[in-house]
Design goal:
mainly alpha, elongated
Length: about 70
C-alpha cells in the first residue's frame, strides 16, 4: 500500500512540475518581451522579475522534492 501511495505522489508531483514549468516559461517570456520593449514599461520590471524568480524558486523546490522521493 505504501509503494502505491509513493507512486501516486510521484506522478502527482511530476504533473505539478510540468504545469509550473509551463507557467515559469510563460513568465520568463513576458519578462523577455518587457526587456525588449525598453525603455517603455521599465516600471513593470521589478514585479515581472519577482514573479519569474518565485516561479523558478518553487520549481526548483518541487524538483528537489521529486528527486528526494526517487522520481
Amino acid at each position: 500500500m505504501e509503494q502505491q501511495s509513493i507512486s501516486v505522489d510521484v506522478e502527482a508531483l511530476k504533473k505539478d512540475i510540468k504545469k509550473l514549468n509551463a507557467q515559469a516559461t510563460n513568465l520568463k517570456m513576458n519578462l523577455h518581451d518587457l526587456a525588449e520593449d525598453l525603455p517603455s514599461g521599465w516600471e513593470r520590471i521589478p514585479e515581472a522579475a519577482a514573479q519569474v524568480y518565485e516561479a523558478y524558486r518553487n520549481l526548483s523546490k518541487m524538483r528537489s522534492r521529486l528527486a528526494a522521493i526517487g522520481g
